[in-house]
Amino acid sequence: MSTRTTPSPRRTIAPAGTGSPPLVLVLALGGLLSACATTTSPTGRTQVVGGMSEAQLQQLGIQAFDQAKKNKQISTNATQTRYVRCVVNSITRELPAGQQAGWEVALFVDDEPNAFALPGGKVGVNTGIFKVARNQDQLAAVVAHEVGHVISNHHDERITRQMGAQTGLGLLGALVGARYGQSAASTTGQLGGAAVQAGLLLPNNRTQETEADVVGQQLMARAGYDPHQAVDLWKNMMSASGGQPPEWLSTHPNPASRIQELDSRADSLAPTWQQAQAAGRRPRCG
Prior knowledge:
Blueprint: E1 12-13, H1 23-28, E2 37-40, E3 46-49, H2 54-71, H3 78-92, E4 104-108, E5 115-118, E6 122-126, H4 136-151, H5 154-165, H6 168-174, H7 182-185, H8 191-197, H9 206-222, H10 229-240, H11 255-278
Parallel strand pairs: 4-6
Antiparallel strand pairs: 1-2, 2-3, 5-6
Helix pairs in contact: 2-8, 3-4, 4-9, 4-10, 9-11, 10-11
């Protein structure tokens, strides 16, 4: 994509602190560190961002996605791939002008029920997601949540925080633990690979997860999907995992509370969904 997939709210430059990373870190990350700034998330939360430029953040997202495609088997099931791409396209059409087109989608043969979205317009979905996302509305809830991370500047926020908290090459080693499995983590031994993983595939914190729930549920409703299906998706996830959240959800909010909050928001978003349907946004993906 030629433009970054996140909105560009007005930013104010924050004063440099005494804990600024040393030059070796800047060099190790290819000069990615720039002046930090504050911005406001879609839910009104103040964020510290600006650890790298928008172009650099997009490039890291593209590199991480390319690495995932090299390391994981891509599905040859054309029907499932079209289905996922249809849902992704219907969600990204609800983004601001200039951010809607050009999203690349990959369906990976992986039994883990997972998905991700990255700066640079990239979405990866595991075939295992179909075990819990049992209709197009539930798949839309997954996709919208992951896209919500991107448009809420969460990758920028995490990278900026990590770059400010660690120094030198030790940072890169500490950040190799990737969110999407040990196979991805094992490929980051070289400096370049670690830089791609840093801040992009790390687990999101609970604040970011809750925010992505809010933003994602709004997106899916505007796209014409029933926001109540986000609740059913989470119930399916809990049922599939024997009542316990899977390992990749360990940093997420309490599942019971999350389901309650999603249910409450779904009621308030019902008019948005109904208006979208009345306006002709009736996805027919699968």
